[in-house]
Amino acid sequence: MSIDAVIAALPFSPIPEGESYCEVTPLAQIITPSSSATALYRAPTFSFYVKHEPSGKTLFFDLGIRYDWETGFAEDLRNFIKPAPPVMVGDVGALLKEGGANPEDVSGVIISHRHWDHTGNIAPFPKAEVVGGIDTFNADLGRQTAGRQTLVLDWSRVKSSKIGSFDHAYDYFGDGSIWLCDSAGHTAGHLSALVRTTPSPNATYVLLSGDTCHHPFLISPTTHNFRLATYPARGGSDNPRKHPGLPPPCCMHSDMERAWDTVCRTRRMEAEDNVMVVLGHDYVYWREWRDNLNRLWPNKAGIHGWKKDGLKMERKYEPEKYDIQ
Ligand SMILES: [Zn+2]
């Protein structure tokens, strides 16, 4: 059976309709894999500013890279980042203020997963509850959240629902406007957020998918047979059968099997007409939005009108346009 047929056969639970919805506006910081400012390949690190319409409450999904990473991170992490330093737009809290919103009013910070390019800096948001999956607070975020109100989504403990192609989803506001979905694989506690962006009837949604995958064409039907990639471990072998004593190839996902399962579930969501998937480093959309800045904070158009405005892209794979050069 083809991958497309496997994905089409995944169980799908209807997404509940409802009146409440959220506005979603991306903020982008830029990360490059090269220290050269002229490198052709650049991917964004998105944070998403979300405004819950019925209550006016605001929150973030992911905080990107902390602006002060050169002093704010521990030495080993700084040394890891230094060879390909990110090009930063600004501190998320300061950017929010520049756009006329008060960081102190932010009531929640939802973090997709534990990695340094998503956990950011929570200090500008003193009143925010910090939300993450089971292992999200084990790294830098754990140090930052000492004494703060946190919500850890452990699927064996919280009440969850089957929503769309996801087996576990948590209704964050209790009104179906934000479902935090179990999208483990990249890390054990990885979360995606399914946000209702326009109300019923015919509600629309964005699925903020963090690091479910990094190559955006992994979630698109394509003639190319994309798979998650492995690479040789330091001092290891590409061929564990030939060199059983050496470290096997590794992958940027902590559980490759689960990561692929999550990619398939995410791709199933993308197949819905009323769902638009946006990845944490989605350079397909970054290429569009960097030239159309009213979608990006501090401009306010956001992406909640994506259906009406025709923002969802076909994700047609064009190697010369999208691959690293
Ligand atoms: Zn990332």
Automatic annotation (TrEMBL):
Give a GO molecular function annotation for the protein.
metal ion binding
**What keywords are annotated for this sequence in UniProt?**
Hydrolase, Metal-binding, Zinc
Q: Which Gene3D superfamilies match?
A: Ribonuclease Z/Hydroxyacylglutathione hydrolase-like
**Database matches in Pfam families:** Lactamase_B
What cofactor does its activity depend on?
A: Zn(2+)
Q: Where is the Metallo-beta-lactamase domain?
A: 44-253
Hydrolase is among the record's keywords? yes
Q: Which SUPFAM superfamilies match?
A: Metallo-hydrolase/oxidoreductase
Q: What's the protein here called? A: Metallo-hydrolase/oxidoreductase
Q: Which organism is it from?
A: Dacryopinax primogenitus (strain DJM 731)
Q: What is the lineage of its organism?
A: Eukaryota, Fungi, Dikarya, Basidiomycota, Agaricomycotina
